[in-house]
Each structure stands twice: as C-alpha cells, then as structure tokens.
C-alpha cells in the first residue's frame, strides 16, 4: 500500500524525495500518514480537495481487500 501511495503522489509534486508514508496500526484500523514538502501541499490537496479525495478513493479501494479499515492522513 505504501508503494501505491508513493506511486500516485510522487509524479504530482516538485520534491518527490520529501514524500514519506508512515504506517500506524491499531487493532482493526490502519492509518497511512502521508507527508510532503510544504510547497507541494496544494498540489496534493488540489482545488476544493479533489486530488486528495481521488487519492483516498484509490487507497480505500485497494485496502478493501484487507480485513482492516484503512485511513489516509495528509500532513506537512
């Protein structure tokens, strides 16, 4: 899943080396924390959050095969 998130986000940003995905698992919940360079936040979120919503849709669809609930958080 980490590779999927990185494959989606890295082509969108100006600083792909700053893209990091951290994983936190708690019981039936898996949270992927995506952090990017400050100047790339707008590109990852998009107008009215459309890009972020699209990324989350793909990640949630890929995570539906797992028995755990998948969440994606975007931070600086």
From TrEMBL:
- Which example biological process does GO assign this protein? regulation of cell shape
PROSITE patterns under this entry? KH_TYPE_1 (PS50084)
Keyword Cell wall biogenesis/degradation applies: yes
Which GO terms fall under molecular function for this chain's record? RNA binding
Which GO cellular component term is one of those annotated? cytoplasm
The protein's UniProt keywords, in alphabetical order, are: Cell shape, Cell wall biogenesis/degradation, Chaperone, Cytoplasm, RNA-binding
Q: Which parts pass through the membrane?
A: none
Keyword Cytoplasm assigned to the entry: answer is: yes
Q: Where in the cell is it found?
A: Cytoplasm
Q: What does this protein do?
A: A probable RNA chaperone. Forms a complex with KhpB which binds to cellular RNA and controls its expression. Plays a role in peptidoglycan (PG) homeostasis and cell length regulation.
Tell me the protein family, please: Belongs to the KhpA RNA-binding protein family.
Q: How does it assemble?
A: Forms a complex with KhpB.
- The name under which this protein is listed is RNA-binding protein KhpA
Species classification: Bacteria, Bacillati, Bacillota, Bacilli, Bacillales
Task: Report the gene name.
Answer: khpA
């Amino acid at each position: 899943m980490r590779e999927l998130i990185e494959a989606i986000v890295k082509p969108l940003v100006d600083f792909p080396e700053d893209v990091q995905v951290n994983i936190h698992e708690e019981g039936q919940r898996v949270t992927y924390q995506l952090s990017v360079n400050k100047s790339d936040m707008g590109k990852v979120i998009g107008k009215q959050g459309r890009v972020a919503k699209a990324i989350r849709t793909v990640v949630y669809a890929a995570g539906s095969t797992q028995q755990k609930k998948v969440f994606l958080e975007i931070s600086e």
